[in-house]
Amino acid sequence: AASAACADEDRTSAAGAVGGEAAASIKSRSKRGRVEAANEVLKRQLKEALEADKANALRIEALQRQLKEAMQADEESAIRIEALRLQLLRERDGADAARQALQMERAARTEAKKK
Questions:
Q1: Distance between CA atoms of residues 80 and 94, nearest Å
Q2: If you ran DSSP here, which 8-state letter would residue 1 be given?
Q3: Which run of H or of E encompasses 39?
């Protein structure tokens, strides 16, 4: 009877050890599952951040291109403005010269009439 009780106790201890290992295994799998889920969340967040960075880089590139075009348009406008200013000066000079020539011609006629 004593040996039967010892055998029962050995089986209970063995069953307890197996049960403890199973519980540890379940706990480990549960922890692994949480870690994997957290890793998936982090991977998704990283992917979203990379996509946002790419979108920002494209927006920055577009803004730089627009700035370059605006600066080029300003430069072209400045060149056109300078050309128009020079043309206006030539027109004024030409008009002044024509006016002076007309005044000189009138003065010459007036002098001629006086003589």
A1: 21
A2: -
A3: helix 2-114
How many whole angstroms separate alpha carbon 109 and alpha carbon 100? 14
Q: Which two tokens stand for residue 36?
A: 């994997």
Write down the pTM of the prediction: 0.47
Give the pair of three-digit tokens for residue 11: 């089986």
Confidence class for position 113, pLDDT limits 50, 70, 90 = confident
Instruction: Write out pLDDT tens, residues 28-69.
Output: 777 888 889 999 999 999 999 999 999 999 999 999 999 999
**How many whole angstroms separate alpha carbon 107 and alpha carbon 98?**
14
Three-state SS sequence of 55-93: HHHHHHHHHHHHHHHHHHHHHHHHHHHHHHHHHHHHHHH
Where is 115: in which H helix or E strand? none
